[in-house]
Amino acid sequence: MKEKTTKEKTDDGSIASRPRELYTGGERPIDPEDLVMASGRDVTPERVERAKRLIEEKGWAAVERYLP
User: What is the Cα gyration radius of the chain?
Assistant: First the structure.
């Protein structure tokens, strides 16, 4: 799917495009791999499995402890 963008002029006169909709992260599902990477660890099958359980248990709050 192609991302919808908006074109606008910058201060220096060039044209830049930006996404029409900005996402903060809470609008999309959390992948266990993302949670492992957010914790600063290497992705391993054991850590992914632990992250799956944590997401099922705590939902979005599982990743909020790693991200500001």
Answer: 17
